[in-house]
Design a protein that fits this description.
Largest sheet: 5 strands, antiparallel
CATH superfamily of the largest domain: NAD(P)-binding Rossmann-like Domain
Structural class: alpha/beta
Strand order of the largest sheet: 3-2-1-5-4
Shape: elongated
CATH class of the largest domain: Alpha Beta
Radius of gyration: 23 Å
Strand content: 15-25%
Number of domains: 2
Distance between the termini: 53 Å
CATH topology of the largest domain: Rossmann fold
Number of strands: 10
CATH architecture of the largest domain: 3-Layer(aba) Sandwich
Length: 281
Protein backbone atom coordinates (compact mmCIF):
# COMPACT_ATOMS: atom_id res chain seq x y z
CA UNK A 1 0.00 0.00 0.00
CA UNK A 2 1.45 3.37 -0.99
CA UNK A 3 2.38 6.06 1.53
CA UNK A 4 -0.12 8.40 -0.15
CA UNK A 5 -2.93 5.88 0.26
CA UNK A 6 -1.95 5.25 3.90
CA UNK A 7 -1.91 8.99 4.67
CA UNK A 8 -5.24 9.50 2.90
CA UNK A 9 -6.87 6.66 4.84
CA UNK A 10 -5.45 7.99 8.11
CA UNK A 11 -6.98 11.41 7.37
CA UNK A 12 -10.36 9.85 6.58
CA UNK A 13 -10.31 7.89 9.83
CA UNK A 14 -9.29 10.96 11.86
CA UNK A 15 -12.11 12.98 10.28
CA UNK A 16 -14.62 10.17 10.96
CA UNK A 17 -13.52 9.97 14.61
CA UNK A 18 -14.02 13.72 15.05
CA UNK A 19 -17.50 13.49 13.57
CA UNK A 20 -18.31 10.48 15.72
CA UNK A 21 -17.36 12.33 18.89
CA UNK A 22 -19.19 15.51 17.85
CA UNK A 23 -22.37 13.48 17.28
CA UNK A 24 -22.05 11.71 20.65
CA UNK A 25 -21.81 8.30 18.98
CA UNK A 26 -19.62 5.29 19.73
CA UNK A 27 -17.23 3.25 17.64
CA UNK A 28 -14.19 1.00 17.68
CA UNK A 29 -10.76 1.69 16.25
CA UNK A 30 -9.12 -1.58 15.18
CA UNK A 31 -5.34 -1.53 14.64
CA UNK A 32 -3.06 -4.35 13.51
CA UNK A 33 -0.31 -4.42 16.14
CA UNK A 34 1.67 -7.47 15.04
CA UNK A 35 1.61 -9.71 12.00
CA UNK A 36 4.88 -11.56 12.58
CA UNK A 37 3.01 -14.72 13.56
CA UNK A 38 0.47 -14.43 10.77
CA UNK A 39 0.48 -16.83 7.88
CA UNK A 40 0.39 -13.94 5.43
CA UNK A 41 1.89 -10.47 5.12
CA UNK A 42 -1.50 -9.09 4.05
CA UNK A 43 -2.24 -8.09 7.67
CA UNK A 44 -0.23 -4.87 7.58
CA UNK A 45 1.16 -3.66 10.91
CA UNK A 46 -0.31 -0.24 11.67
CA UNK A 47 -3.34 -0.80 9.46
CA UNK A 48 -6.43 0.85 10.96
CA UNK A 49 -10.17 0.63 10.54
CA UNK A 50 -12.91 2.54 12.35
CA UNK A 51 -16.13 0.59 12.93
CA UNK A 52 -19.16 2.65 13.95
CA UNK A 53 -21.90 1.31 16.22
CA UNK A 54 -24.17 1.39 13.17
CA UNK A 55 -21.94 -1.22 11.51
CA UNK A 56 -20.48 1.20 8.98
CA UNK A 57 -16.71 1.28 8.60
CA UNK A 58 -14.03 3.72 7.53
CA UNK A 59 -10.67 2.43 6.36
CA UNK A 60 -9.47 -1.10 5.72
CA UNK A 61 -7.01 -3.64 7.11
CA UNK A 62 -6.18 -4.68 3.52
CA UNK A 63 -8.47 -7.64 2.79
CA UNK A 64 -12.27 -7.82 2.67
CA UNK A 65 -12.48 -11.09 4.61
CA UNK A 66 -10.31 -9.69 7.40
CA UNK A 67 -12.31 -6.45 7.48
CA UNK A 68 -15.57 -8.41 7.79
CA UNK A 69 -14.31 -10.51 10.69
CA UNK A 70 -12.88 -7.47 12.50
CA UNK A 71 -16.16 -5.60 12.01
CA UNK A 72 -18.10 -8.40 13.71
CA UNK A 73 -15.59 -8.58 16.55
CA UNK A 74 -15.73 -4.78 16.93
CA UNK A 75 -19.50 -4.86 17.47
CA UNK A 76 -19.10 -7.66 20.02
CA UNK A 77 -16.35 -5.62 21.70
CA UNK A 78 -18.72 -2.64 21.99
CA UNK A 79 -21.31 -4.78 23.76
CA UNK A 80 -18.67 -5.99 26.23
CA UNK A 81 -18.02 -2.36 27.30
CA UNK A 82 -14.23 -2.78 27.56
CA UNK A 83 -12.06 0.27 26.86
CA UNK A 84 -9.32 -1.57 24.97
CA UNK A 85 -8.32 -5.18 24.34
CA UNK A 86 -6.11 -7.17 21.98
CA UNK A 87 -7.06 -10.39 20.20
CA UNK A 88 -5.29 -12.74 17.82
CA UNK A 89 -7.38 -13.20 14.70
CA UNK A 90 -7.53 -16.91 15.49
CA UNK A 91 -9.55 -16.09 18.63
CA UNK A 92 -12.47 -14.51 16.77
CA UNK A 93 -12.10 -15.78 13.19
CA UNK A 94 -10.37 -19.19 13.20
CA UNK A 95 -11.46 -19.77 9.60
CA UNK A 96 -9.04 -17.05 8.42
CA UNK A 97 -5.96 -19.23 8.72
CA UNK A 98 -3.78 -16.87 6.70
CA UNK A 99 -4.27 -14.15 9.34
CA UNK A 100 -4.54 -16.40 12.40
CA UNK A 101 -1.48 -15.07 14.23
CA UNK A 102 -2.09 -11.37 13.55
CA UNK A 103 -2.67 -9.31 16.70
CA UNK A 104 -5.42 -6.67 16.54
CA UNK A 105 -5.99 -3.93 19.12
CA UNK A 106 -9.63 -2.87 19.63
CA UNK A 107 -10.17 0.55 21.24
CA UNK A 108 -13.51 2.05 22.21
CA UNK A 109 -14.02 5.54 20.74
CA UNK A 110 -16.62 7.68 22.45
CA UNK A 111 -17.01 11.20 23.76
CA UNK A 112 -16.36 11.81 27.43
CA UNK A 113 -19.56 11.12 29.39
CA UNK A 114 -21.69 14.11 30.27
CA UNK A 115 -23.72 14.77 33.40
CA UNK A 116 -26.40 17.44 33.51
CA UNK A 117 -27.46 18.30 37.06
CA UNK A 118 -30.68 20.21 37.69
CA UNK A 119 -30.41 21.82 41.10
CA UNK A 120 -27.30 23.34 42.67
CA UNK A 121 -28.11 22.85 46.34
CA UNK A 122 -25.84 20.86 48.66
CA UNK A 123 -26.40 17.55 46.85
CA UNK A 124 -26.19 19.01 43.34
CA UNK A 125 -22.99 20.93 44.09
CA UNK A 126 -21.39 17.87 45.72
CA UNK A 127 -22.42 15.70 42.77
CA UNK A 128 -20.95 18.18 40.28
CA UNK A 129 -17.58 18.16 42.03
CA UNK A 130 -17.47 14.39 42.42
CA UNK A 131 -18.54 13.65 38.84
CA UNK A 132 -15.93 16.01 37.49
CA UNK A 133 -13.21 14.14 39.40
CA UNK A 134 -14.45 10.84 37.97
CA UNK A 135 -14.13 12.17 34.42
CA UNK A 136 -17.59 13.46 33.52
CA UNK A 137 -18.14 16.72 31.68
CA UNK A 138 -20.53 18.45 34.07
CA UNK A 139 -23.24 21.06 33.57
CA UNK A 140 -24.84 22.42 36.74
CA UNK A 141 -28.13 24.30 36.39
CA UNK A 142 -30.19 26.32 38.85
CA UNK A 143 -32.77 29.08 38.57
CA UNK A 144 -31.09 30.89 41.48
CA UNK A 145 -28.07 32.67 40.02
CA UNK A 146 -26.34 32.90 43.39
CA UNK A 147 -26.22 29.07 43.58
CA UNK A 148 -24.25 28.79 40.35
CA UNK A 149 -21.95 31.76 40.89
CA UNK A 150 -18.41 31.04 39.71
CA UNK A 151 -16.92 32.05 43.06
CA UNK A 152 -18.57 28.98 44.60
CA UNK A 153 -16.65 26.79 42.15
CA UNK A 154 -13.48 28.83 41.92
CA UNK A 155 -10.72 26.28 42.45
CA UNK A 156 -8.66 25.37 39.36
CA UNK A 157 -10.09 21.85 39.28
CA UNK A 158 -13.67 23.19 39.38
CA UNK A 159 -13.23 25.58 36.46
CA UNK A 160 -14.40 22.92 33.99
CA UNK A 161 -17.88 22.74 35.56
CA UNK A 162 -20.33 24.56 33.29
CA UNK A 163 -22.61 26.77 35.38
CA UNK A 164 -25.99 27.88 34.06
CA UNK A 165 -28.41 30.31 35.71
CA UNK A 166 -31.71 29.23 34.16
CA UNK A 167 -34.54 31.60 33.36
CA UNK A 168 -36.51 28.53 32.28
CA UNK A 169 -35.74 25.08 33.69
CA UNK A 170 -37.17 23.35 30.64
CA UNK A 171 -35.25 25.41 28.09
CA UNK A 172 -32.00 25.14 30.02
CA UNK A 173 -32.35 21.35 30.36
CA UNK A 174 -33.20 20.81 26.71
CA UNK A 175 -30.26 22.90 25.54
CA UNK A 176 -27.82 21.22 27.93
CA UNK A 177 -28.95 17.68 27.07
CA UNK A 178 -28.78 18.21 23.32
CA UNK A 179 -29.08 14.92 21.41
CA UNK A 180 -29.04 12.95 24.68
CA UNK A 181 -26.32 10.55 23.52
CA UNK A 182 -23.80 9.88 26.28
CA UNK A 183 -25.74 12.16 28.66
CA UNK A 184 -26.96 11.40 32.17
CA UNK A 185 -29.40 13.72 33.94
CA UNK A 186 -29.72 14.04 37.70
CA UNK A 187 -32.72 16.04 38.93
CA UNK A 188 -32.04 17.27 42.46
CA UNK A 189 -34.15 20.43 42.67
CA UNK A 190 -35.90 21.89 45.68
CA UNK A 191 -39.57 21.16 44.95
CA UNK A 192 -42.35 19.44 42.96
CA UNK A 193 -42.80 22.19 40.38
CA UNK A 194 -39.11 22.31 39.52
CA UNK A 195 -39.00 18.50 39.41
CA UNK A 196 -41.92 18.38 36.98
CA UNK A 197 -40.47 21.00 34.64
CA UNK A 198 -37.06 19.31 34.60
CA UNK A 199 -38.36 15.77 34.23
CA UNK A 200 -40.69 16.70 31.39
CA UNK A 201 -37.83 18.36 29.52
CA UNK A 202 -35.47 15.47 30.24
CA UNK A 203 -37.73 12.65 29.07
CA UNK A 204 -38.53 14.56 25.86
CA UNK A 205 -34.77 14.89 25.19
CA UNK A 206 -34.21 11.14 25.75
CA UNK A 207 -30.79 11.05 27.46
CA UNK A 208 -29.14 7.74 28.37
CA UNK A 209 -30.04 8.08 32.06
CA UNK A 210 -32.52 10.12 34.09
CA UNK A 211 -32.72 10.06 37.87
CA UNK A 212 -34.75 12.19 40.27
CA UNK A 213 -34.16 12.73 43.96
CA UNK A 214 -36.88 12.61 46.60
CA UNK A 215 -38.91 10.28 48.78
CA UNK A 216 -40.95 7.48 47.24
CA UNK A 217 -44.09 9.54 47.80
CA UNK A 218 -42.66 12.70 46.23
CA UNK A 219 -41.21 10.95 43.18
CA UNK A 220 -44.40 8.94 42.60
CA UNK A 221 -46.42 12.14 42.78
CA UNK A 222 -44.32 13.75 40.02
CA UNK A 223 -44.26 10.63 37.84
CA UNK A 224 -48.02 10.08 38.16
CA UNK A 225 -48.76 13.70 37.33
CA UNK A 226 -46.63 13.60 34.18
CA UNK A 227 -48.26 10.32 33.16
CA UNK A 228 -51.70 11.93 33.51
CA UNK A 229 -50.52 14.81 31.34
CA UNK A 230 -49.60 12.41 28.53
CA UNK A 231 -45.87 11.86 29.02
CA UNK A 232 -44.41 8.80 27.30
CA UNK A 233 -44.98 5.88 29.71
CA UNK A 234 -42.03 3.84 28.51
CA UNK A 235 -39.65 6.71 29.15
CA UNK A 236 -41.21 7.39 32.54
CA UNK A 237 -40.66 3.74 33.45
CA UNK A 238 -36.92 4.17 32.83
CA UNK A 239 -36.61 7.10 35.25
CA UNK A 240 -34.59 6.14 38.34
CA UNK A 241 -36.62 7.58 41.19
CA UNK A 242 -35.65 7.84 43.95
CA UNK A 243 -32.22 8.30 42.41
CA UNK A 244 -29.09 6.45 43.50
CA UNK A 245 -27.97 3.18 45.06
CA UNK A 246 -28.79 2.23 48.63
CA UNK A 247 -25.52 2.78 50.50
CA UNK A 248 -27.10 4.25 53.63
CA UNK A 249 -26.13 7.76 52.54
CA UNK A 250 -26.81 10.59 55.00
CA UNK A 251 -24.66 13.63 54.17
CA UNK A 252 -24.95 15.52 50.86
CA UNK A 253 -21.57 14.13 49.83
CA UNK A 254 -22.69 10.57 50.56
CA UNK A 255 -25.93 11.10 48.64
CA UNK A 256 -23.89 12.42 45.72
CA UNK A 257 -21.73 9.29 45.88
CA UNK A 258 -24.83 7.06 45.83
CA UNK A 259 -26.16 8.92 42.79
CA UNK A 260 -22.90 8.79 40.87
CA UNK A 261 -22.48 5.10 41.68
CA UNK A 262 -25.80 4.35 39.99
CA UNK A 263 -24.96 6.52 36.98
CA UNK A 264 -21.61 4.77 36.50
CA UNK A 265 -23.22 1.33 36.94
CA UNK A 266 -25.84 2.18 34.33
CA UNK A 267 -23.22 3.43 31.89
CA UNK A 268 -20.99 0.37 32.19
CA UNK A 269 -23.67 -2.25 32.71
CA UNK A 270 -22.78 -2.91 36.34
CA UNK A 271 -25.23 -4.58 38.70
CA UNK A 272 -24.46 -2.51 41.78
CA UNK A 273 -24.07 -5.74 43.77
CA UNK A 274 -21.15 -6.21 46.21
CA UNK A 275 -18.10 -7.60 44.41
CA UNK A 276 -17.46 -9.88 47.39
CA UNK A 277 -20.66 -11.76 46.50
CA UNK A 278 -18.82 -13.27 43.52
CA UNK A 279 -16.40 -15.04 45.88
CA UNK A 280 -19.23 -16.65 47.81
CA UNK A 281 -21.04 -18.14 44.80
Amino acid sequence: MSTYHTDSQSQLISKAIRELLEDGLTGVLATVMDSSNAGSNDARVGGKMLVKESGDKVGSLSRDELDGAVMQQSLAFLRARDEAKTFRVAEFAPQLEQFSGALVLFERIEAEPRLVIAGAGHVGASLARLAMLVGYRVTLIDDRAEFVARELFASPIEQSIELIAAKSWANALREAIGSGRGVSVAIVTRGHKQDEDCLQAAINSNPDYIGMIGSKRRTNFVLDKLCEEGADEDRLQRVRAPIGLDIGAVSPEEVALAILAEIVAERHGGSGAPLSAWRRT
